[in-house]
Every structure is written in structure tokens, then in C-alpha cells.
């Protein structure tokens, strides 16, 4: 813990430099830096503000690449040129150290709350009282956010509310894990405190967290835990379940759980929190423009590509950039000019409905087929038309989309042929390498609509008026027939299961209504990094065995004609298995559809497809953490390992 104290002290010195003193005289009158102590800080509104924002750790665009629009890679929605060890059992192993078992950020939240809450109650913090309360609320939010990341990765986790002395005995005692439902309740308690204290306009631009952000996030946490407990019920991944490792911990000997009551509690909390957002925020309009330069005047399209997102009420919290201040990213270089080493999967693209509300396979759907990408998009859900590229479409004011380069180097490759258009800004100068400054959304209100629909149906087995209205609003904006019962009646679960892992929970197909609720979520949150979290909480990967990721119809349509040598007219495509040549595409003998993981066979652990191991629903705890909390004998540690993982560095999952 000494290292954390040094880090905290260094940060507090940074707060001093950033804004603790506002005039030259104040600067000259300050104490010598080598005599500064933490006690002189966190006494004024601006110091609280600086401390809180320094602890923002949200997924936003940064560096080179597609930014957050690549975060759905390694799911059934998106693919990249490399594979993930999560789908190659035996390759993901127990680490020697590190991992999600980390407390430094949590400790810094606890330090703030320990120091500030007594001062706030005593009225000794200078500044605007509403702003002071807001920044305190932000730190409750940030602690909740940090804890939620641990629950997602590890499940059961220690609940630590205070800073701890640098003593081995105290640190070992604090390492005792608590059942995940208790941790989730602790998170919700922190979010309730945040909601009580925060306001919705801390800076007028929503570049800071807001009360609505906290309400939305509360609905996410509650839905996550309620659905996890429901679908993982009866496994060792749920407290009290058969084989639950916490049952062997002496300090949990008195633990009991009414799991159905817990499921109902969390789903009810998800409904209440999401409704607060639904009642306050309407969805941004879609004017239907999806072709030519008119797309750049469509508010729904612009919401994801704007430089300034403060005009979109649906955006509850976003990050802004400024090239002049050296705060920028480079995602437009990839989104506008190439494939960015990612692409939508065939299964994802085929899940989008037709405008008339029918699945593509249904009689009378009007599906034009997939001989070309333009055909794929014809008469489809506006979200597919708006957020997937097709050759010849306007990409910026000055440029149109070329055919997808599936043969390029990995950094710029169109991995599946189906390319991301979400977030593409009309200004092509942002792609010249000097820096992109489009905003990055962290929270938007549409998620609350989706959370309410799912929580209501899973809890009650039916849709109430609010859920119905939310679903109609989402389908209206997507340009779909609003009669979702028509879609449900036309849904063939056997067909859907071929390309959508969300058709399953625990290896079994879900009912058509629940599936279409999940489909709505999948299509609304396209390329927003939510898919893997959803698949895990739904327990939707038990059935994933030798699953082949596919892209566009390379061999069965017209698209292979794009890849001809301009001089000789010969094909540039070299199928896998071609004798004497290095392959650059998958073989038509395996599928008409491009298979990005069957281009090369040798030394390719996923050539035969994706496979899932149940251990992967939770991450393993690294070996050193057991060693440090056991007196030298890891198996005697107060920490217990997650299901199907050994207490062994480099250990493979246990069947």
C-alpha cells in the first residue's frame, strides 16, 4: 500500500498545480512543495472537481484505430484479423500476477470519501454547495463503476469502504471475498448516493457525469446482476449454487441466499432506474436520410459522428476533444479511409429486420439477397443502412466508399467485407493524420429504453405499457413497422440461432419474444462495445462449439469480381489450400462466405471455429494474490479461485 500512498500524494501535488491557487500572490504565498501534506487539499470546490475528473476511467476514443467502435471485436457481432484466447480453451491461463484483482482506484475513492464527507457535513468546504455535492456524488459513482468492472470480471469480490493500514494482517483480512449479489447491492447503494447528490448540468455540456448518467448506470448494473443470477442459476458462478467455491470459505459459513428474491430485486431496480431516464429524455430523431450527402443532416447519424455532442439530449455523457490543446484521437483516419481491421459478421448483418418488420427469411419479407452489399441493405432496418458502408456511398463531403479491401495489411483491412460506418464524420480533413476530434459517447439514453424492456419482460413474463412504448419508440426511429408482435410471430428460432448467440441461454433456445428483445438491443447498440457483456450475463455461449465467423458473400455473389488485376484481369484472390501459393482469403470449398479465421490453416488455433469453455464466463485470479494472502501456502489463502480455474500460475481451465 505504500506505493498507492505515493501515487496519491503525487496526484495531490498535481491538483495544486492545476488549480488550487488562482493568482500569482497565492502562488508565491504557498507552502514549500517538500512540506505539502494531503491534509491541505480537498477543502475547496475546485479541488474536489479536479480530483474527481482525474479519476474518470471510461471507454472513449484514443490513439490510432477505430476507437470504441472496435470494442465489439471477438464476439458474434464483429471480427478482427486476430483471434482472442477467450475462444480457444487452454490458451487463456491463470496469470502470475496482475489482472482485475486490483484496489488502487478503489482506495483513491475511499480516501476521498473518508476525507471529504466529514468536512462536507461540517460545512468547511468552500464553494458552491450544489457543486460540492455533485463532485462528492461523482466519487460515489466512480467507486461504483470500479466495483462493477470487478463484478463483471471476477464475480465475488471484497467490499472495502475505507482506506487500510499498510499491515499484512489487515490487508489479508480485507481480501476476503463477498458474494457477488452483496457486491452488486453495494454498488447500487453507492449509485443511490450519487443520484441523491448529483445534478444534470454540472458544466452545461455533459462532459462531466450527470444524475441521469448515474440513473442509467444503475439500471445497467441492476439488469446485469438480475440477468446473471437468473441465467447462471444452478451453477458454481452464482452464490449458493452447486460447486460455488465460496461455500468452502469459513468466513462465509453463515451465508444464505434466496436467489429468486434477489433476481426480482435487481430486475425491479433496473426498471425503476431506467424509467427515470426514459421519462426525462426522448430519443434523437431519425429523419430517414441515409443516402448521399443528405445522411450528414440526419440527427440520428450525426449523434455518433459530431464534434460537439452537447446538442443531442440523448447523449447523457460524452468526451470532447481539441486538437489545439493536443487532445485528440485518430479514428476518422480508419473509419473514413479503410476497414480499420474490423468488420461486422454475417450473423450480425442478417439479424437486422426488413422495414416491414419481418426477418429476412420470412415469406414476403422482400429481402434482396446478398449478391452485393447494396442488396444486403435494401429495404432494411435504418440502423443497417446508416451504420454499414457499401461501395459507392458518400462517406465524407468529398469521398465515396470504394470496394472493401479484404486483402490489405491487418491495420487497415476490411476483415469481413462488411465495414463500420457508425461515427464517420463528413469532414475528410480529420482523416489526414493530424488528429480527429469527433466526440466519444459514454452513456446515451437509448440504453435505458432497452434495459427497461428486457427487465420488465424477464421479471414479469409480459410487457407493460412503458416497455411497449419504449419498443415502439426504438422501432419507429429505426424505420421499422412498429408492430413487434408481427416480428415475433414470424421469428423462426432455429434460423436465428445460426448467427446469433443471443438466441440461447444455458445452451437452450429462448422464447421468440425474449429473443426479439435481445435482437433490438443488438441492433440498437451496434459497435458500441456492449455485446460481450450481454453474452456473458445471458449465459449465451455454452453452445459455442466450432462456430465459424463469416463475413460477406465472397464466392456466391458478384463481389469476387471486385478483386481483379487491372492489367491482366486475373483474380487477386488466393483461396486457402491453393497449392504453392500463400492464401489471402478462405476457400469456397468451405463456404461461399468469407471466413476470416480460415484464410491460413497452419498454426491457427481457431481454424476449426470458435469454442467456449464455461470457465471463461469469469476471469481467473492471478497466482500471486493467493501467495500474498496465505502465509506462503497459496491453497490456504482467504481468497478462493473462480470456478473451473486452478490456483496455479499458467494453469489451464479445469473441466
Automatic annotation (TrEMBL):
It is found in: Cell outer membrane. InterPro entries: SusD-like_N, SusD_RagB_dom, TPR-like_helical_dom_sf. Pfam families: SusD-like_3, SusD_RagB. Its main location: membrane. Keywords: Cell outer membrane, Membrane, Signal. Transmembrane segments: none annotated. The keyword Membrane applies. Residues 325-562 form the RagB/SusD domain. PROSITE patterns: PROKAR_LIPOPROTEIN (PS51257). Residues 26-223 form the SusD-like N-terminal domain. Residues 1-22 form the signal peptide. One of its GO terms (cellular component) is cell outer membrane. Belongs to the SusD family. This is RagB/SusD family nutrient uptake outer membrane protein.
Amino acid at each position: 500500500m505504500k506505493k498507492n500512498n505515493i501515487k496519491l500524494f503525487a496526484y495531490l501535488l498535481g491538483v495544486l498545480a492545476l488549480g488550487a491557487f488562482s493568482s500569482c500572490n497565492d502562488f508565491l504565498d504557498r507552502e514549500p512543495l517538500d512540506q505539502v501534506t494531503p491534509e491541505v487539499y480537498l477543502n475547496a470546490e475546485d479541488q474536489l472537481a479536479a480530483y474527481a475528473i482525474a479519476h474518470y476511467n471510461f471507454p472513449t476514443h484514443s490513439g490510432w484505430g477505430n476507437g470504441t467502435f472496435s470494442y465489439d471485436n471477438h464476439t458474434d457481432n464483429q471480427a478482427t484479423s486476430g483471434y482472442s484466447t477467450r475462444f480457444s480453451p487452454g490458451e487463456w491461463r491463470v496469470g502470475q500476477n496482475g489482472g482485475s484483482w486490483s484496489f488502487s482506484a478503489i482506495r483513491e475513492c475511499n480516501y476521498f470519501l473518508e476525507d471529504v464527507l466529514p468536512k462536507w457535513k461540517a460545512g468547511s468546504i468552500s464553494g458552491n454547495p450544489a457543486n460540492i455535492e455533485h463532485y462528492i456524488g461523482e466519487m460515489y459513482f466512480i467507486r461504483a463503476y470500479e466495483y462493477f468492472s470487478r463484478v463483471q470480471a471476477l464475480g465475488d469480490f471484497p467490499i472495502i469502504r475505507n482506506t487500510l493500514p499498510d499491515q499484512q494482517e489487515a490487508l489479508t483480512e480485507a481480501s476476503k471475498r463477498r458474494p457477488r449479489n452483496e457486491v452488486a447491492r453495494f454498488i447500487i447503494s453507492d449509485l443511490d448516493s450519487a443520484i441523491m447528490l448529483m445534478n444534470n448540468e454540472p458544466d452545461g455540456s455533459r462532459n462531466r457525469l450527470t444524475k441521469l448518467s448515474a440513473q442509467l448506470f444503475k439500471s445497467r448494473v441492476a439488469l446485469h446482476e438480475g440477468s446473471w443470477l437468473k441465467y447462471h442459476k444452478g451453477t458454481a458462478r452464482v452464490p449458493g449454487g452447486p460447486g460455488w467455491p465460496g461455500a468452502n470459505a469459513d468466513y462465509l459459513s453463515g451465508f444464505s441466499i434466496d436467489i429468486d428474491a434477489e433476481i426480482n430485486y435487481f430486475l425491479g431496480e433496473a426498471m425503476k432506474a431506467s424509467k427515470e431516464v426514459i421519462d426525462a429524455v426522448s430519443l434523437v430523431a431519425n429523419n430517414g436520410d441515409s443516402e448521399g450527402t443528405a445522411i450528414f443532416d440526419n440527427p440520428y447519424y450525426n449523434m455518433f459522428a459530431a464534434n460537439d455532442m452537447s446538442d443531442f439530449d440523448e447523449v447523457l455523457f460524452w468526451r470532447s476533444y481539441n486538437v489545439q490543446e493536443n487532445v485528440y484521437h485518430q479514428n476518422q483516419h480508419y473509419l473514413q479511409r479503410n476497414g480499420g481491421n474490423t468488420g461486422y459478421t454475417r450473423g450480425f448483418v442478417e439479424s437486422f429486420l426488413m422495414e416491414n418488420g419481418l426477418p429476412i427469411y420470412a415469406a414476403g419479407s422482400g429481402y434482396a439477397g446478398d449478391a452485393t452489399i447494396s442488396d444486403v441493405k435494401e429495404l432494411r432496418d435504418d440502423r443497417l443502412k446508416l451504420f454499414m458502408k457499401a461501395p459507392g456511398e458518400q462517406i465524407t463531403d468529398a469521398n465515396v466508399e470504394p470496394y472493401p479491401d479484404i486483402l490489405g495489411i491487418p491495420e487497415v483491412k476490411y476483415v469481413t467485407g462488411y465495414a463500420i460506418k457508425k461515427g464517420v464524420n463528413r469532414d475528410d480533413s480529420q482523416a489526414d493524420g493530424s488528429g480527429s476530434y469527433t466526440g466519444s459517447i459514454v452513456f446515451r439514453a437509448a440504453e435505458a429504453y432497452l434495459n427497461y424492456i428486457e427487465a420488465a419482460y424477464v421479471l414479469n413474463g409480459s410487457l407493460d405499457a412503458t416497455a411497449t412504448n419504449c419498443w415502439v419508440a426504438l422501432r419507429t426511429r429505426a424505420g421499422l413497422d412498429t408492430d413487434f408482435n408481427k416480428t415475433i410471430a414470424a421469428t423462426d428460432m432455429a434460423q436465428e440461432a445460426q448467427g446469433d448467440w443471443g438466441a440461447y441461454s444455458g445452451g437452450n433456445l429462448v422464447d421468440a419474444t425474449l429473443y426479439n428483445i435481445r435482437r433490438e438491443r443488438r441492433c440498437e447498440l451496434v459497435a458500441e462495445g456492449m455485446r460481450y457483456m450481454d453474452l456473458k450475463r445471458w449465459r449465451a455461449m455454452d453452445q459455442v462449439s466450432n462456430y465459424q465467423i463469416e463475413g460477406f458473400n465472397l464466392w456466391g455473389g458478384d463481389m469476387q469480381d471486385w478483386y481483379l488485376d487491372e492489367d491482366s484481369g486475373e483474380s487477386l484472390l488466393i483461396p486457402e489450400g491453393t497449392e504453392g501459393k500463400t492464401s489471402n482469403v478462405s476457400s469456397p470449398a468451405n463456404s461461399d462466405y468469407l471466413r476470416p479465421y480460415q484464410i491460413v490453416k497452419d498454426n491457427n488455433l481457431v481454424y476449426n471455429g470458435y469454442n467456449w469453455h464455461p470457465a471463461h464466463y469469469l476471469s481467473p485470479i492471478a497466482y500471486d494474490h493467493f501467495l500474498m494472502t496465505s502465509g506462503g501456502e497459496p491453497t490456504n489463502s482467504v481468497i478462493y479461485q473462480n470456478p473451473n480455474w486452478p490456483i496455479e500460475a499458467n494453469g489451464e481451465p479445469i473441466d
